[in-house]
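Write out this protein's structure.
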Amino acid sequence: MAFGSDGHFVAVLTLFMTFKPDEQALKLAVSIVLWGQEDEAFLRTLRTLDRACAHARTAGLLGAARLVLTDHSPHTAGAERISRWQQVCSAIELDYLHDSVNPGFGAGHNAAFSRLDGCGLFLVANPDLEFSEDSLLGALTFFAEHPGVGALAPLLVEDDGERPGCFRPPNLRVLFLRWLGFTATQSQQVARYECRDWDINEPVMNPPLMTGCCMLFRSEAFGRLGGFDAGYFLYFEDFDLSLRAAKAGLSAYCPALRVEHAGGGASRKGTRHQVFFVRSAWRYFNAHGWRW
């Protein structure tokens, strides 16, 4: 989809023609789960998300936006940091929740979703993203043009280039290659796993798997899918949910939903994350079949 001046006008016009009057300004709920997030990186996430919300609101396509920050750190962020976060959010209402018990990534998002009533959209986002200004506007337009779609995967901008925020089903070999640090430029298997052969500008309906760093749902679809499987503490919960969404015919890769992503790489995050990864991989392959 083109988003130049003419393309933008057509996209906006399409949205108004497709939505019912009471749907023209959908409410957005955003869920971010924190654990010891560095302020500067997270402030960039908040600023760019706020700007994307403001841009979509100015176009008349987004209503109220509410952000739930669920902090699983051992200690609360403190009034000063929370105030600093609130100050950069002019288009978003921010709620901060602290839960040191830390039930896990997916469980944290499920809990946030259960608190949010009356929001037509539910965005699951990592605290290390930067949103392009027209990302939410583009996503809203895509939803309008595809009323049967209930979950969107983004276009990712990473250190080694742009790629779809999607994956082919993993096997043990490709996961081991990524564990060793092989990138898409070094391994054809890794490149294929990361869908590097796709045209990043073309939408794909029901991609095999979606990245969990940024997933935009119609709230009705997220609820119908049952949310994340809380049995995954960290890693692979996004793949499990993706498979269910694709099976239901609800998902799509949306290149207009463009975000920069600085995270990833469990093998680079220490032994604790490696243990989480192995445990979740075991659960995932046991549930969905082992691929060698």
